[in-house]
Each structure stands twice: as structure tokens, then as C-alpha cells.
Amino acid sequence: MTVKELATKLDLHFLCGEEQADRPVTGCYCGDLLSWVMSRAKEGDAWLTVMGNINSVGVAVLADIACIVLTENAPFDLPALERARQNRVVVLQAQKNTYEIAAAIANLFG
Amino acid sequence: MSILKLHYDIDGSDFTRAGEASGKVKRVLKKLGLDAEAIRNVSIAMYEGEINMVIHAGGGEIDVEISSELVTIVLTDHGPGIEDVSLAMKEGYSTATDNIRSLGFGAGMGLPNIKKYANEVAIDTKVGVGTTITIKIYVPDCSAEL
Ligand SMILES: Nc1ncnc2c1ncn2[C@@H]1O[C@H](COP(=O)(O)OP(=O)(O)OP(=O)(O)O)[C@@H](O)[C@H]1O
Ligand SMILES: [Mg+2]
């Protein structure tokens, strides 16, 4: 599944990184504590979080995350957006909460 | 065999730049074609050290040495030092303030992550003087041409 397919199926909207929409998504990880995510999330995961600051982008880059999904329309601040654009990180926003999105992703992978 | 040396000054007052040096090193290692797992290990270990330097020690310096067998990362700061290193190494132990926690830090997982992803870690610290952390990550037989 690509980021684009994920976005379409789960009704997520792009905050940035649309040009990277062909990136494959191979798994999912949920969490808001950065050091936790850093070591546990796997390459290619969609990362579900409400932590929308510049440090989230750093983690996404270093952990080779496929896309950040901000659940419950959690805000993504401007410095974070600029850094995400520079580093070609895909950032999506979801209206639903982390549980609902994770369950939907599990279904897609099912 | 040649060795590539990189040096970074880490600004302790600018949270928005924390992690940049680690991102740069990661790009260099990718260009060199280093083993993917070694790159991940370096990225995680260096990131945690870099962030700690910013949130706990007011910044510092990082020196990275890359050879075809080994990546060595030396993080030096002149912050408060660590009083009890074995306590600091425990998962969940953190002295991060609420303000820092609201940014997503303070799980008390940084030093344990370094230990987990590095092949060797040495922490040399003195209260009131500073901390030097030396991290070594072995690179498996690879085609990197330096
Ligand atoms: N460079 C440093 N200088 C002074 N104290 C440090 C330094 N690095 C770590 N510490 C101390 O060790 C504790 C544990 O560090 P660790 O990185 O494991 O957790 P954390 O930084 O508090 O949270 P996290 O890394 O999960 O965001 C810190 O809370 C701090 O008290
Ligand atoms: Mg830390």
C-alpha cells in the first residue's frame, strides 16, 4: 500500500509531502513519546501521533517513517511544517482518533 | 584505509535545531552506502545523545569518525553532569521538566536506547563539569568506499 492509497482509503489529508505519495507503507506505530517512537517504530511505518512539533519531524526522518499521521486533527506548527518540507516528510491529518485510525489500518493490512 | 571526520557545534538554546546534526550524519552515511542497519543504529544513538545535550546540558560538541569498520561518535558537553549514571541508564528515569515533556521528550528512554543500539558506550561524567559520551557502532563488512 502506498501513502496515497492510505490517505484515500482513510480520508486523511496531506499537510505536506504529496510528491512523496508513492512511498510504500508497510506497517503502523502509535505513540507520542519521541524516544519511544525512535527506537520502536520500524522503517516504512505510518506513525500515528498527536505530537506535531519540529522534533517529530526529526524522529520521522531518522527512523525512516513512511508518513506522520496527526490524529484528531492535532496541530502541526509552522517550524515543523517547514522542516518537513525540507526533508520531504509526508504529513497527513486525520479527524478520527489514534485508535480508530490504527484499527482501520489493521483492517487494510488484514 | 581512510577515515572521515565530521564535527558539529550543538546550540543548546535552539530546540528547533536539535537533531539536525544527526540528520546530516545519516545523509552522509547513506551516500557512503554503509550497511542499512548500522545507519539506523548510528542515527538513533546519535540523535538521543544530541537531544540530551540540548535539553539537559545547554549544548556542546559532537565529533564523528567514520571508517569502513566502525562509526565512533563522541558527544562532549559542559553541562551539569550526571550524578548517578546507573540510575540515568534505567528505562523511565528522567529529570526532564514539564515544559520539555510537553514536546514529547522525557520518557527516560534516551540513554537506554543508546545502550541498545550501540555496540559500545562509555559515559565519562563529573557533576558540575560536564559529560562525554563515546559511542561505537560496528559496521559489518560493507562496500563503503571512503
Ligand atoms: N548530557 C547530559 N547532561 C546531564 N544530564 C544528562 C545528560 N544526558 C542525560 N542526562 C540525565 O539522564 C536522564 C536520563 O536520560 P534519558 O535520555 O534516558 O532520558 P530523558 O532525556 O530524560 O528522556 P527521553 O530521552 O526519553 O526523551 C536525564 O533525564 C538527565 O537527568
Ligand atoms: Mg534523552
Describe this structure in words.
The complex is a heterodimer of chains A (110) and B (146). Chain A has one domain: Udp-n-acetylmuramoylalanyl-d-glutamate--2,6- Diaminopimelate Ligase, Chain: A, domain 1, CATH 3.40.1390. Chain A is 41% helix and 18% strand. Chain A contains five helices and five strands, in the order H-E-E-H-E-H-E-H-E-H. Chain A has helices spanning 3-10, 34-40, 54-62, 78-86, 98-109; strands at residues 13-16, 27-30, 45-49, 67-70, 91-93. In chain A, strands 1-5-4-3-2 form a five-stranded mixed sheet, sandwiched between helices. The radius of gyration of chain A is 12 Å and the shape is globular. Chain B is globular, with a radius of gyration of 15 Å. Chain B has a single domain (4-138), classed as Heat Shock Protein 90, CATH 3.30.565. Chain B is an alpha+beta fold and 146 residues long. Chain B has five helices and five strands. In chain B, strand 2 (59-66) and strand 3 (70-77) form a beta hairpin. The A-B interface holds A 32-36, 38-39, 43, 51, 53-56, 58-59, 61-64, 79, 83, 87 and B 15-16, 18-20, 22-23, 26, 40, 43-44, 47-48, 51, 103-110, 113, 116-117. Bound molecules: adenosine-5'-triphosphate and magnesium ion.
- Provide the structure class of chain B: alpha+beta
Bound molecules: adenosine-5'-triphosphate, magnesium ion
Order of helices and strands of chain A: HEEHEHEHEH
Computed over alpha carbons, the radius of gyration of chain A is 12 Å
Number of helices of chain B: 5
Number of domains of chain A: 1
What proportion strand of chain A? Answer: 15-25%
The total domain count of chain B is: 1
CATH superfamily of chain A: HprK N-terminal domain-like
CATH homologous superfamily grouping of chain B: Histidine kinase-like ATPase, C-terminal domain
Radius of gyration of chain B: 15 Å
* Biggest sheet architecture of chain A: 5 strands, mixed
Q: Which shape of chain A, going by the Cα principal axes?
A: globular
Share of β-strand residues of chain B: 25-35%
The amount of helix of chain A comes to 40-55%
Helix content of chain B: 25-40%
Order of helices and strands of chain B: EHHEEHHHEE
Report low-confidence residues of chain A grouped into runs of 5 or more.
none
Quaternary state reads: heterodimer
Give the overall average pLDDT of chain A: 97
